[in-house]
Design a protein that fits this description.
Length: 230
């Protein structure tokens, strides 16, 4: 009998021990969720330098002999920008070597302002570096060795000293009412408040003008709302 009672006692002790472990496990609070991580920085994400030299081959049809600037004096600037899809993208601009650091700073500011840009591609992406095709595609671009239509004078773009920003949304309009690009008629109304449309004293405009750039939207005639130059 003593042996039987001893066995029963041992069984009860073992059962109590298991129950205690189960209760302890049930009463243990769940681990905290993983700490939220900050999104990766949108600057400096490219493995290549932001500013790089270019060759004649890099420029394609946007440069030709007789242009007022040598490719040696131009730079490719890789910039991050906020797309209309809400995501960060990376694009390239060809600009004058002296303006390259300024362009990096301007587009970094535009990104932090969350100013949306449709796309940024070098104009040689389009057949014959056609400026009209680039504008119709709402492509933001800079260098293009071309003149000012109807004047015979080099455009500031031919020196790598101008940028056209969201050109479909911010068209060129002359005193006779002619405009560019050809598909920009809906955006001649400058009271529109669509994302990407530029207005006087907008933070996006001041990202340029506060650094000494001139905005075509401030000109009396023609009005060139897409155009910034220095």
């Amino acid at each position: 009998m003593a042996s039987a009672l001893s066995s029963v006692g041992a069984w009860r002790i073992a059962a109590l021990a298991v129950t205690s472990v189960v209760l302890a496990q049930c009463s243990t609070p769940p681990p905290p969720p993983p700490a939220a991580t900050s999104p990766p920085s949108v600057t400096g994400t490219s493995p290549t330098p932001a500013i790089q030299p270019v060759s004649t081959a890099d420029l394609g049809p946007s440069w030709h002999p007789g242009c007022p600037i040598d490719p040696h004096d131009l730079r490719r600037v890789d910039v991050d920008y906020l797309g209309f899809d809400g995501s960060t993208h990376r694009g390239a601009l060809i600009v004058n070597e002296e303006l390259a650091p300024d362009v990096v700073a301007i587009f970094d500011q535009l990104l932090h302002l969350r100013y949306p840009i449709a796309k940024i591609r070098t104009v040689d992406t389009y057949p014959n570096a056609d400026d009209e095709l680039s504008m119709e595609d709402n492509n933001t671009s800079a260098f293009n060795c071309r003149d000012i239509p109807g004047t015979g004078r080099w455009s500031q773009h031919a020196y790598g000293g101008a940028i056209d920003l969201n050109p479909l949304l911010n068209p060129y309009l002359d005193r006779a009412g002619a405009f560019q690009p050809d598909n920009a008629a809906p955006y001649l109304d400058r009271n529109r408040s669509d994302p990407g449309v530029l207005h006087t004293e907008d933070a996006a405009v001041r990202a340029f003008t506060d650094r000494g750039w001139r905005w075509g939207g401030d000109w009396r005639t023609p009005k060139d709302y897409q155009h910034f130059e220095r």
